[in-house]
């Protein structure tokens, strides 16, 4: 990161930086070798799964874990921007388990099948720090700390976490819909694609 960096101020607010880092599980040995050989990160997509690549109503009704139309929209963002995909979703546990040699989870297999179909690659994942409203923003900030070459990034998420300065980089994929069972519709749509590309300065 360049001028957007205010990590020192953030960690001062959260407590001692080293104490926070101690909470992070070391996953370096589990990182995909393709990521290690892929060069510097300059553009990144931080990807949630539920509510981004699926819709909660559809998932309940049709057991639709991954919506390929939404994956195709993610492909458009990645292809035009050249950004690498970093998982922030709870699904990253499946990713870590798979890289550790464990059998592939059924949910993760559906995700990987869809990614393979659209020629998409997961380049890594943030570490899990906690489950409160500040945890995902903190996990992303920790990931960015040792990635000084990142010049632009977008966060695809359906939840209103306590984003702080990261909010300028967030594309919300959840919106009101009176026709939906829950009153909400979620998932990556074409407007989200255009917003993400603007944030990544790819259009």
Task: Detail the topology: elements first, then pairings.
Layout: H1 7-14, H2 17-23, H3 33-36, E1 43-47, H4 56-62, H5 68-81, E2 84-87, H6 92-99, H7 106-117, E3 122-125, H8 135-145, E4 152-157, E5 170-172, E6 174-176, E7 184-186, H9 190-199
Helix pairs in contact: 5-9
What does this structure look like?
The longest helix has 14 residues, at 68-81. The chain contains 9 helices and 7 strands. It is globular and about 35 Å long. The two termini are 20 Å apart. It has 203 residues and is of the alpha/beta class. It has helices spanning 7-14, 17-23, 33-36, 56-62, 68-81, 92-99, 106-117, 135-145, 190-199, and strands at 43-47, 84-87, 122-125, 152-157, 170-172, 174-176, 184-186. The protein has one domain: Rossmann fold (3-Layer(aba) Sandwich). The strands form 2 sheets. The chain has a 5-stranded parallel beta sheet, covered by helices on one side. A two-stranded antiparallel sheet has the order 6-7.
Tally of alpha and pi helices: 9
Topology order in helix (H) and strand (E) letters: HHHEHHEHHEHEEEEH
Strand residue content: 5-15%
Number of strands: 7
Radius of gyration over C-alpha positions, nearest whole angstrom? 17 Å
Please give the alpha-carbon distance between the first and last residues. 20 Å
Largest sheet: 5 strands, parallel
Query: What is the molecular shape?
Result: globular
Mean pLDDT: 81
* Uncertain residue ranges: 7-18, 20-38
| Helix share bin | 25-40%
What is the fold-level CATH name, i.e. the topology? Rossmann fold
Class by helix and strand content?
Answer: alpha/beta
Strand adjacency order, main sheet: 3-2-1-4-5
CATH architectural group? 3-Layer(aba) Sandwich
Number of domains: 1
Task: Tell me the name of the CATH class.
Answer: Alpha Beta
């Amino acid at each position: 990161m360049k001028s957007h960096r205010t990590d020192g101020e953030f960690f001062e607010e959260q407590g001692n930086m080293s104490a926070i880092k101690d909470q992070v599980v070391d996953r370096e040995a589990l990182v995909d070798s393709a990521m290690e050989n892929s060069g510097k990160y300059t553009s990144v997509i931080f990807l949630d799964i539920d509510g981004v690549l699926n819709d909660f109503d559809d998932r309940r009704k049709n057991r639709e874990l991954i919506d390929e139309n939404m994956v195709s929209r993610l492909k458009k963002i990645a292809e035009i921007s050249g950004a690498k995909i970093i998982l922030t979703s709870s699904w990253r546990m499946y990713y870590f388990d798979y890289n550790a040699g464990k059998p592939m989870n059924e949910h993760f297999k559906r995700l990987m099948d869809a990614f393979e179909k659209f020629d998409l690659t997961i380049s890594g994942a943030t570490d899990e720090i906690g489950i409160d409203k500040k945890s995902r923003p903190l996990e992303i900030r920790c990931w960015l700390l040792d990635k000084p070459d990142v010049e632009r990034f977008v966060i695809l998420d359906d939840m209103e976490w306590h984003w702080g300065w990261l909010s300028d980089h967030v594309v919300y994929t959840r919106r009101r819909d009176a026709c939906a069972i829950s009153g909400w519709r979620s998932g990556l749509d074409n407007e989200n694609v255009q917003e993400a590309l603007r944030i990544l300065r790819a259009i």
